[in-house]
User: Fold Phenylalanine--tRNA ligase alpha subunit from Alicyclobacillus acidocaldarius subsp. acidocaldarius.
Amino acid sequence: MSDTWRHELEAIREQAMASLALASDSKALNDWRVEVLGKKSALGQMSKAMGGLAPEDRRVLGEALNRIRQELEQAWRSRQAEIEAKEKALRLERERIDVTLPGRDVPLGAMHPISRVIEEIEDIFVSLGFSVVEGPEVETDHYNFELLNIPKDHPARDMQDTFYLTDEWLLRTHTSPMQVRTMERMRGRTPIRVIVPGRVYRRDEDDATHSHQFTQIEGLVVDEGIRMSDLKGTLEAFAKALFGPSQRVRLRPSYFPFTEPSCEVDLVCVSCGGSGCRMCKGTGWIEILGAGMVHPRVLDMSGYDSARYTGFAFGLGAERIAMLRYGISDIRMLYQNDLRFLRQFRHA
Assistant:
C-alpha cells in the first residue's frame, strides 16, 4: 500500500476521533456515525476505490481499512455508553420527585341535580311499595303508540314530534311503553306498583323550558279496586315528601290517549306558597305532571281484564322537578356541564 493511502487513512482516523470527542448528545453521536462510518463516508469511498488496485495492494488496503473501521466503531460504542449514561442521569434528575412534598388536592365532584332528583323520587316511591324498572330507549311503534291506544292518525305520530329510525323503530317519546311491557311480563298477576325513570326524545325546539331530550319518570299501579282517590293520595304523599308537609295537589281534567279519565296535576307554588307570583303567573299553583286511570283498552291489550282490574299511571319530568326544587330558571343549564353551575349542588 502506497504512503499516500496510509497517510490518508491516518488523517481520517485522527479527524474522526477528534470529532467524536466533541459529540455531546445522542443526535450528534448518530450524525458522527453516518458521516464517518456510512456508505458515503471517506472510508466508504476508499472501499469502492479498492477495485482498481493491484491484488497485493487491495489486500493490504483492505486490512488497514477494516482495522481502522473496527477501531472507530469501538470508540463510537464507548462514547455512546458515556453519553447514554449522562443523559439518563440528567433525565432522572429532572424527573426526581420529592416524596416529602404534600400531595395536590383532588377536587371533589357533586351529584348532578337531575341524578339527585331521580334518586330522591325513587326513594320516595320505594318507601310507598313501588319497584324501579327500566326499559329500552329505542322502542317499537307497537309499544310506543299502538298498545297505548294511540291511533295511526294521532298528532303524536307526526314526524315533527317523534325521532323515527325506521318505519317501525323510533326513539321513545315517553316511558309509557313500560306500562305495557310490565303488564305483559307480569302475565295477569297483581299487584303492580312500578316507577320507570329514563330518557325520552321529542322533536322540540330547545328553549328555557323545553329540550329535545329529557328525563321522564313513569308510574304505574294495577290491582283490583284501584280508584282515582288512590292516585291523588299517592301523588299528594309524594309531593309532601319532596317539597314539605304543607304541600297540596290539585287535579285538573285533561286528555291522554292511554288514560281515562285523565288529569293534569298541580302543586302549591314552591316560590310564593300559593299567594301568587311571577313563577306561578299569579295562580298560586304550578303544574308538575300528567296522570289518569289506565285506559280499559290498554289493560285489555296488555292481558288484564278491565272489568276486574283498574289502575292509574302518571308521568313527570325530572328536569321540571329539579328546576322547581333548586330554583333553576333555564333547563339548558342542566345540560351544559358548566362546573361553576354544578359546584353549587355539592352541598345541596
Summary: The chain has a mean pLDDT of 88. The first helix runs from residue 3 to 22.
